Amino acid sequence: MARMKFLCDAERCIECNACVTACKNEHEVPWGINRRRVVTLNDGRPGERSISMACMHCTDAPCAAVCPVDCFYQTADGVVLHSKDLCIGCGYCFYACPFGAPQYPQATNFGSRGKMDKCTFCAAGPEQDNTPEEYQKYGSNRLAEGKLPLCAEMCSTRALMAGDGDELADIYKERVVRRGYGSGAWGWSTAYRDRQGDSFRPGSPSIEQQT
Amino acid sequence: MLTKRRADAPARRSLSPALAGAGGGMDRRSFLRNSGLAAGGLAALGALPGTVARRAEAAAIQPGIETVTRKNICTHCSVGCTVIAEVQNGVWVQQEPGWESPISQGTHCAKGASVRELTHGSRRLRYPMKLVDGEWRRIGWDQAIEEIGNELLDIRQKSGPESVFWLGSAKFSNEGAYLYRKLAAFWGTNNVDHQARICHSTTVAGVANTWGYGAMTNSYNDIQNSKALMIVGGNPAEAHPVSMQHMLRGKERNRAPFIVVDPRFTRTAAHATEYVRIRPGTDIPFVWGMLWHIFENGWEDKEYIRQRVYGMDEVRAEVKKWTPEAVERVTGVPPDQVRRVAETMAKNKPSTMIWCMGITQHTTGTANVRALSIFQLAVGNIGVEGGGANIYRGHCNVQGATDFGLDVTSLPAYYGLAEGAWKHWARVWDVPYDYMISRFASKELMETKGIPTTRWFDGVLAKKEEIQQPDTLKAMIVFGHGGNTVTRMPDMLAGLERLRLLVVADPHPTTFASFAQRRNGTYLLPACTQFETDGSRTCSNRSMQWGEKVVEPIFESRDDYTIIYMLARKLGFANEMFKHITVEGIRPVPEDILREMNKGALAVGYTGQSPERLKLHMKYQANFDKISMRASSGPVAGDYYGLPWPCWGTPEMRHPGTAVLYDTSKHVMDGGSTFRARFGVERNGQTLLAEGSYSKGSELTDGYPEFTMAMLKKLGWDKDLLPEELAVIQAIGGDKIDDVSWQTDLSMGIVRVALKHGCVPHGNAKARAVAWNLPDPVPVHREPIYSPRPELVREFPAIEDKRDFRLPMLARSVQFQVTDRNIQRDFPMILTSGRLVEYEGGGEETRSNPWLAELQQDMFAEINTEDARRLGIENGKLVWVYGPENRSKARVMALVTDRVAAGVVFMPFHFSGVWQGQSLRGNYPEGTDPIVLGEAVNGVTTYGYDPVTAMQETKVTLCRVEPA
After folding, report:
1. How close is the nearest chain A Cα to the Cα of B40, in Å?
2. N or C: which end of chain A has fewer CB atoms below 10 A?
3. Cross-strand pairs, B689
């Protein structure tokens, strides 16, 4: 079984925002909700780098650990999804998430934030696959059609990749070897560590140093 | 934890019958109503808690309804990314990656990934409208065309045909562009232009005057073969993001140095191996500074220059002046850096030179282009894979629209305006030459270049005696062109007010409709986008791609062909104009238009790209190699993708197209070619023809002039002509049969015979380092008109004033006044402008798209951190930017950043709808105002034009910034 992951190659990302609009287009995400966004470091200065960020679908997802109603679940492919029927909009997952992924439709001081929304790895939610009900709550379900997330499929420079983690790591390693430099697979050590301790645990050598 | 159950193989198109119809059907009208709500922006977000989409039916593919997949091309930049549309019930419901495209390979930028919204059209113009005493009224198409036509005919009678300005669009398909040029010709004026004037007219003039054709020599894909890349005055990471995949692959695979030369540390520069910060407007000293090192060290390609370049010695004399110290004094670039990048380019060959509007939009635009071209010639980089002058055009079809003559200086395919050109096209159109003369005020005006779009308002405001045509401009017909794209907007507004008739045909009302200056005599016609019609477009690399209609034109919009036909019919020449073009109802058939273009556009080699071949290429995209762009299998085997021009001869000759221009290492029937013999055969006792260099397999093993009947006879090759070809040639030539050339021979026999002998029809010449017909035959540095360095102005003055394009073209007198009046004291900062990734052109279309608008909600000015501290400007706060002409000003948000150097202010050019602090939102017809409005940078830009093409100066002027 594949273990789905995202990988953003900061040496390739040019902050073109294709991933952001592809996501909006695919799921008709409303104004104000950003399942994916591009973050730029050192903006306008030498060393400027951008990374495209969304839910990373962590191995041991902190959002799921803190959710008081246990609305999160992980698919056999490793995709972290949640049920909007169970979500109470408490916002704990937002505080727990290292990537700022959870989004809320309302920003009020009191009362409901509305149901949390986040990247689904284009795998939607618990409803029956590819039904209008599923689409209305979670957007489209590309994975069920054998397709990968549209953000990565449309990435202008192939900076953002989505798919089986082992394959992504191979592609990235090959790239780093070929070009001779890399600034790391952003977020991997945070998102994809496991209890046995794999090569991406904090403090482990970055992916390009291993190659 | 739950584990989600997945259906085994629930493909979208084969859902179980139980689900069929579950979501219910949906017709296009109710879809549009819903999407109109959905795109409303910020409103009513909490209305349906827990949902992503506000209406499930707004976009979801509905189960059980047939899904049709259609293939079109992105309508934004010139890269030409394939768009895959999934359509249900005539509604575009989903956008998929175009994996098979050799160019985009599935990818998009923010704009391309959002094009589906264009056919929702939440802010589109829905029906024809008319301004009555300052109020927008809905009218019908017939009334609109009737009233517009009557006004035009009245103006024609009172002022003559030259008083109408026909502004076309780089958003037209090739067929639309050609038809619009033809419309202007049949109306009787050369006052017909489009966006190329303001983006790459100087490139076209500069490179065509150097080696023959005005276009990118290689392709985006070919950059993967480069061993070094230099990008000067271009920011592809924002303007052409998908090109970056090829550039970054080149950089990574070849470990190619990636050099960015720009006043601004752009997002492209962030990925460079070397960034060169240059003072705006000093490109020629920088290039000559690099060549100084190349000549000094003998790094030039001497054999290449001997065989293929004319006049390099005159360049050497000019370059000698640009010592490292002189270069640093003018450009600000340190000597060791100039040497380093020059050596990098000379020693990592093939190296490619990439440029964009940072080079072209200058008073020295054509000279800038020529300098870069000469640099590439000196190191022998033209005509080789991985080398070349890779000029990134702006719009999706600006190359094609230029090629098909939306240009005040030429008929389609660069034939010019001389008698021979008119006679050629009259033959193609099958109308008598005398009929064409009769459409014009005079034969002289018929052969005189028109008023360019950069200066149309000067054509309105000028006194009758100042302008070299019978009367001033009274009417303007604008198709697909923003109103904020030209400099000097305060003057533009005065011209707008004075126009008797203004017609805007566009999916959006555009900036033209947002100004309150006009109260009557204004019509808005809803033209549809290229996703709602079909036709071909030419990307920057000269490949043609056929776009398939995705949905029917939405609301009451109509396609360009239909609107042009309706106008021609009303104006009384539809029968002549559409003599050989089938018109179905009121819609001319684009395939037929292309066939007519194929018949006449010999001079650029636009003859082999029949609609059938282009459609085959779209169908078999997957068969083309992703780097060489050549197909090795299937019915397109041997062809280059999109048959990049020149694609010689008839479609039946199956020329594969030319992927790399001027590449002598290939046979002409394999896409090989030579520099075009366009400028004679000899000058000052030196030959202008190539010496010892020829394309592979050529039977003529030296330079040769362009092919004519006389030349065929001399070679004895006229015997190869078929009788039917000879008959056509005789009919064209009459008693001067020797003069019939490859460009005018409609039988294409001369072309066929040349190819048969391995020769390139346009001859085999040297490229010109010296272009004696240009104002500066060898490019020289000239300070900008609004120079930030007044002490250099007398040493490097602007070009002398002259008259051209029917108007006075001032330069030096204005520059000296600016310096003498010490304008620089009150306006101490350099103002430059450029592009953002989310928006395009004037921006009305993209600022109306909620997915894009959300990403850039404010017009801003980038101000250096030092300057901001000194001026008391805070990041995110409002500032006034003042311009030195017309007391112009703009209120924008300050973005404090080191991206710009101290003393430089950068503003993006996509905004409008706010004027000097006042919102114009209420002036748009209801429901058509773009989501995001902002001040137009051209509200504060100033006078200054390139002497060859009347390109406007947008990249260097002066300004003052104060906290608002």
Report:
1. 9
2. N
3. B765
